[in-house]
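Propose amino acids for all 673 sites.
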């Protein structure tokens, strides 16, 4: 097949799968299969640069940096919205509409008011040619190169009925889970966190280097057709949204037609109740007159349409005073600073505690006791202090001293990771807080699932020194339990039965129950499937651990360290002696062979024409093991730009090092026989 024909075919395929993944949330290809198509496209375009088009999916990785954004004049102004907060104000608004349209039925459309960044997308002959910010409503900035990197934004539309030119409007936002993940990484690295998803989205779109935007997890919901040229014109807002969905745009599934105020109120109540589960920030709902003809006749005043109203929900951000900072000790000894706050109503509840995450965060925020702080409570996430209003700092406010000893057991605190993480060195043997938290984890639903053994009871058991480690649970006598507060004979007997029943478990549950750092449920399952037996896992080397899917160098090191520690060995032996058992898992022999069988490869730095995952898949398919750390046993290291200590190490061990071009050459050679 000619390059040009294959390129069109690849672009078509990638557009299709991209839409399934980003817009429909229903992929039909495994990530690796998608990556393979993408890699083929990149390779073919690299070989034929003259055939690269602006609507090619390859443009999503980000084009060359700009020196500044060009200004764009909107063909029709992007209006703002009038807002209200009470049902009465909403009723008044609808009455005003009715007064202007006497004797007409007014259909309404209700939708979430997404808290992101408004953008306008212009499509010409179905191709995205311009994306701009709202700016002042008249003129915005040309952010086309950045918007092209967002998977949910179609670069090209293929339906037969696309208007010759049209403008689609909507909100670009950062999903909450992605926002949390971004901040989690930033906190671990002591880097600056995003205050909220809206700032995250705005900051990402303001990057002059589209390559940076491409790395930010943004998506988009389209909320209106700005205008369309041609014979087809929608009769209503909701008809336009249906068309947009059909053409491949991402439209909120929560748009609802309403006939009257009661319908609207039900929509508002239901949306508010689901707010935490939506997965993105909303600051309210937008209620629009659905008929576009009625919209035209209602018109606008002072840059706000008469035909729409924003109903605002209680804010998820607030300011309050920091009364004190306390330090909590977790299951693995991590010491977390917790802010005690003057109670404040935020995100629908009264909040008096919030997390400060870690020691570096305290330093980064520069927070003092007595400060006025900004607080955020959104989604299902615990309330967080996101900033300090330094201008409101009272005289004589106190800085926050980081503890040197554990506030619970007095053991020394060890600072790890450049002071980001503080950890009590007591272990569960010495620290009651760690003991309580490990036991809570051990008994929890996804671990040993001991019914009736709740947090309060565990605390009482530890405080009465009845349980020092998990194995002690299995020796508890009903008589000693019955002496605990609020525990009768009957419930004591029931609990003993539930504990005894948990002896029959599964290997993944048992591994998870140990509470090893960063070994969650999914990792526990992978480990169990890979090793099949506990002994094999206990004896595994770091290298062997790294061969497990999803286990990187950090988790492998945590595991090896855990199993090497004599206290943990004793703890495990006690559990086995207490009669815990599970069926071993049959480990299917890994398909061996392939030209790279028995070789261990390491990928480091960035790869330009393919993702690291795609490279890994191709190496694994050839029989290689791909691991995260360099050792003397490493067969080969692939180093892209930005490679650091792993490359230095490889050089000091005199290992073969390939660059990306050499890797590609090798892969092609080996794959073709
Ligand atoms: S309609 C004239 N619909 O809210 C109609 N706006 O305060 C204006 N927004 O700049 C837009 N979700 O960024 C509309 N479903 C939605 C929206 C929405 C969020 C934002 C938009 C606009 C701002 C107006």
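Proposal:
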């Amino acid at each position: 097949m000619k390059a040009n024909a294959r390129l069109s075919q690849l672009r078509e395929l990638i557009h299709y799968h991209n839409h399934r993944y980003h817009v429909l949330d229903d992929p039909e290809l495994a990530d690796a299969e998608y990556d393979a198509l993408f890699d083929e496209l990149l390779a073919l375009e690299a070989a034929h640069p003259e055939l690269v088009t602006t609507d090619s999916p390859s443009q999503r990785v980000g084009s060359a940096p700009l020196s500044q954004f060009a200004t764009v004049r909107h063909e029709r102004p992007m209006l703002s919205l009038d807002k209200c907060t009470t049902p009465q104000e909403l009723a008044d608004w609808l009455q005003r509409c009715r007064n202007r349209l006497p004797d007409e039925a007014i259909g309404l459309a209700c939708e979430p008011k997404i808290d992101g960044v408004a953008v306008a997308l212009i499509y010409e002959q179905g191709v995205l040619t311009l994306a701009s910010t709202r700016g002042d409503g008249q003129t915005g900035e040309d952010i086309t190169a950045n918007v092209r990197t967002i998977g949910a934004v179609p670069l090209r539309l293929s339906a037969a009925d696309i208007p010759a030119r049209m403008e689609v409007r909507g909100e670009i936002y950062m999903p909450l889970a992605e926002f949390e993940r971004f901040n989690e990484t930033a906190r671990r690295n002591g880097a600056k966190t995003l205050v909220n998803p809206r700032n995250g989205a705005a900051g990402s779109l303001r990057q002059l280097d589209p390559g940076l935007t491409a790395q930010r997890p943004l998506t988009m919901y389209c909320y209106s057709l700005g205008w369309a040229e041609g014979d087809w014109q929608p009769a209503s807002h909701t008809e336009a949204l249906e068309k947009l969905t059909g053409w491949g745009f991402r439209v909120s599934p929560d748009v609802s037609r309403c006939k009257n105020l009661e319908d609207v109120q039900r929509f508002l109540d239901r949306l508010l109740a689901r707010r935490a589960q939506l997965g993105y920030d909303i600051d309210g709902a937008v209620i629009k007159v659905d008929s576009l003809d009625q919209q035209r006749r209602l018109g606008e005043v002072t840059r706000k349409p008469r035909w729409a109203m924003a109903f605002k929900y209680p804010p998820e951000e607030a300011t309050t005073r920091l009364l004190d900072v306390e330090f909590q000790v977790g299951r693995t000894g991590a010491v977390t600073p917790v802010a005690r706050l003057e109670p404040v109503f935020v995100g629908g509840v009264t909040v008096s505690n919030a997390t400060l995450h870690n020691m570096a965060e305290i330093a980064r925020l520069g927070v003092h006791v007595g400060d006025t702080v900004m607080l955020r409570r959104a989604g299902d996430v615990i309330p967080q202090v996101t900033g300090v209003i330094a201008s409101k700092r009272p005289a004589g406010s106190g800085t926050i001293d980081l503890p040197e000893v554990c506030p619970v057991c007095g053991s020394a605190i060890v600072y790890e990771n450049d002071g980001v993480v503080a950890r009590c060195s007591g272990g569960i043997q010495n620290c009651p807080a760690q003991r309580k938290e490990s036991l809570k984890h051990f008994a929890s639903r996804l671990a040993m699932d001991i019914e009736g053994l709740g947090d309060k009871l565990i605390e009482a058991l530890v405080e009465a020194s009845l349980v020092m480690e998990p194995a002690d649970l299995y020796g508890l006598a009903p008589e000693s339990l019955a002496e605990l507060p609020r525990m009768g004979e009957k419930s004591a007997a029931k609990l003993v039965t539930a504990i005894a029943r948990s002896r029959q478990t599964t290997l993944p549950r048992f591994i998870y129950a140990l509470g090893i750092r960063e070994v969650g449920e999914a990792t526990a399952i992978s480990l169990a499937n890979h090793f099949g037996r506990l002994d094999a896992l206990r004896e595994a080397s770091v290298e062997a651990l790294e061969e497990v899917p999803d286990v990187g160098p950090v988790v492998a090191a945590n595991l090896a360290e855990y199993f090497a520690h004599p206290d943990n060995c004793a703890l495990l032996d006690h559990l086995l002696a207490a009669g815990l058992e599970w069926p071993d898992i049959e480990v299917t022999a890994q398909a061996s062979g392939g030209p790279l069988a028995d070789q261990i490869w390491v990928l480091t730095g960035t790869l330009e024409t393919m993702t690291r995952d795609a490279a890994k898949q191709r190496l694994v398919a050839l029989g290689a093991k791909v691991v995260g750390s360099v050792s003397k046993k490493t067969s080969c290291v692939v180093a892209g730009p930005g490679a650091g200590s792993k490359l230095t190490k490889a050089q000091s061990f005199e290992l073969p090092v390939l660059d990306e071009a050499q890797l590609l050459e090798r892969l092609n050679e080996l794959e073709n026989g």
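Residues 3-23 form the longest helix (21 residues). Residues 79-81, 111, 113-114, 118, 134, 171, 223-224, 286, 305, 308, 310 surround 2-(butylsulfanyl)adenosine (CB under 6 Å).
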